[in-house]
Amino acid sequence: MKKMISASILNADFSCLESQIQAAEKAGVDWIHLDIMDGHFVPNISFGPQIAAMVRKMTSLPIDTHLMISNPDQFIAAFSDAGADYISVHVENNPHIHRTIQNILKNGKHAGIVLNPGTPVQAIYPVLHMVSYVLIMSVNPGFGGQSFLPESLDKISELSAKIKAEKRDVLIEVDGGINAETLPLAAKAGAEIFVVGSYIFTNPQGIPHAMQTLKA
Ligand SMILES: O=C(CO)[C@H](O)[C@H](O)COP(=O)(O)O
Ligand SMILES: [Co+2]
């Protein structure tokens, strides 16, 4: 399948967000990635459904919403109404992850399950049949601009082998520290969707150059 770039706007310039998103779209990104942080599940606060709804008006690309919040069930309907196409939730803080994924599906959205660097890949196997994608964090969540953790590659390979062995229609997304050097490593391990934030939006050579080097 075609490899895809999901552009995380976390480190974009919010004073001109629309032009940043349009530049990313023009440069060929496939999805827009929204990082939702509550200052509780992760040590940072980002933005909520109101901003997500504004982003929806700025682009026709699919919107990939990564919920890093303590009570995802409380907000799934709001982010669905705000125009998310894909909604992913973490496995770590949720004893009712099966129900939460059902909740995403009931809202008519593609569901994803997310793993932190310290979580074994087996933790998501009981819900693998329910999701369209698995998001493997290659940094500890909460901040953009961190360095890629190479130990995530083994997890990607292991999950990729499991998906192939079971002939499942599940994509592997990787998030954190992806740039022109780390993208090929994650691709070789089996990742198909690459969340890229600061490498695109804070690239000193600009967004088109960043996308050219990622595609190369
Ligand atoms: O989920 C995230 C952080 O928790 C972000 O999606 C991720 O960090 C992307 O930013 P960058 O490419 O700068 O690492
Ligand atoms: Co993210």
Automatic annotation (TrEMBL):
One Pfam match: Ribul_P_3_epim
Domain of life (superkingdom): Bacteria
UniProt keyword list: Carbohydrate metabolism, Cobalt, Isomerase, Manganese, Metal-binding, Zinc
Molecular function GO labels: D-ribulose-phosphate 3-epimerase activity; metal ion binding
Cofactor: a divalent metal cation; Fe(2+); Mn(2+); Zn(2+)
InterPro entries according to UniProt: Aldolase_TIM (IPR013785), Ribul_P_3_epim (IPR026019), Ribul_P_3_epim-like (IPR000056), RibuloseP-bd_barrel (IPR011060)
Enzyme class: isomerase
PROSITE patterns: RIBUL_P_3_EPIMER_1, RIBUL_P_3_EPIMER_2
Pathway(s) annotated for this protein in UniProt: Carbohydrate degradation
Co-factor: note: Binds 1 divalent metal cation per subunit.
One Gene Ontology term, aspect cellular component: cytoplasm
Example of a GO biological process term: pentose-phosphate shunt
Family annotation (PANTHER family): RIBULOSE-5-PHOSPHATE-3-EPIMERASE (PTHR11749)
Protein name (Swiss-Prot/TrEMBL): Ribulose-phosphate 3-epimerase
Recorded name of the encoding gene: rpe
